[in-house]
Amino acid sequence: MKTSLNKEINNIRNAALSAYLMAFFTNAYYKEAQEFPNLQLLFVVYPLFYVEDILKLIEGTYKPTGLLGCVNKLRDNRKKENDILLHLQIMIEENRFEILEAIRMAFLSNILSIGNDGKIIPIEKNIKRIRVEGHDVSMMCKSAEKVGIWFAKLPIAEIEQILKVRL
Predict the structure, then answer these.
(1) To pair with 112 at 20 to 30 A between CA atoms, which of 31, 87, 101, 123?
(2) What is the pLDDT of residue 4?
(3) What Pfam family is a match for this entry (predicted)?
(4) Nearest to 130 by CA among 51, 32, 55, 19
(5) pLDDT digits 0-9 by tens, 19-40
(6) Residue 136: what pLDDT?
(7) Element (H, E) at 139
(8) What is the Cα–Cα distance from 29 to 7, expressed in whole angstroms?
(9) What residues does 135 pair with on adjacent strands?
C-alpha cells in the first residue's frame, strides 16, 4: 500500500525535478567542503530523493548527526535496513538512464556544469525553492542540502561503505 507521500513522489519524479535537487545537493556540498563533488555522487543521491522511507529518515535526522548517524537509525530496524540499503545499489543501476537524463537536464538548464576532472560545478549559487501545489518539494530540497553537507564531510570510499554501494 502506497502512502500519500509515496504517491506524490512518484507523480513528480522527473528529470527537471531531479536536476533541481542535484543542484541543491551540489551547492550544499560545495559550501561545506569548498570543493566540487564527483559526478559519481549524483548517482547515489538520486535514489535517496525518491525512496519515501529514506527521504523521511533524512528529513528527521539533524544535520550534525551525519550520514552514518542517519544510516544507524535504519540499523535499529533490521528489516528496513535490508529493504533499503541492500537495494540501494540496485536502485542506482535500474535508474541510471533517469539519472543521466537528470544530469543532462541540469547541464542544459545551466544550473550545473562538469569540469575536466569529472567534478560537478554549480553554476547557479542561489537557487530559489519552488512551490508545487500539493507536493512537498521543499522537504526534498532540504534533504538534498543535508545529504550534500553529509557527503562533503566524507571520502567517497566511506560513503560507499556506509551506504553499501559501489561507484
Answers:
(1) 87
(2) 55
(3) MC3
(4) 19
(5) 999 999 999 999 999 999 999 9
(6) 73
(7) helix 137-152
(8) 29
(9) 132
Range scoring the smallest mean pLDDT among 9-13, 22-26, 32-36, 90-94: 9-13
Question: pLDDT value at position 53?
Answer: 79
Burial of residue 167 (CB within 10 Å: 0-12, 13-18, 19+) is: middle
State yes or no: pLDDT of 5 exceeds 90. Answer: no
CA distance 103 to 87: 22
Q: 550534525: which residue's cell?
A: 64
Task: Please say whether the dihedral angle defined by the alpha carbons of residues 4, 77, 47 and 32, taken in this order, is positive or negative.
Answer: positive
Domain map of the chain by residue range? 4-163
Residue 63's nearest CA partner among 152, 155, 156, 146 is 146
Contact (Cβ atoms closer than 8 angstroms) between residue 38 and residue 120: yes
**Three-class SS state of 61:** coil
Q: Tell me if 60 sits within 8 A of 14, measured CB to CB.
A: no
Pinpoint the alpha helices (H) of 51-135: 52-59, 66-75, 78-94, 96-108
Whole-prediction pTM: 0.86
Maximum CA extent, the chain? 45
Cα Rg of the chain (Å, integer): 15
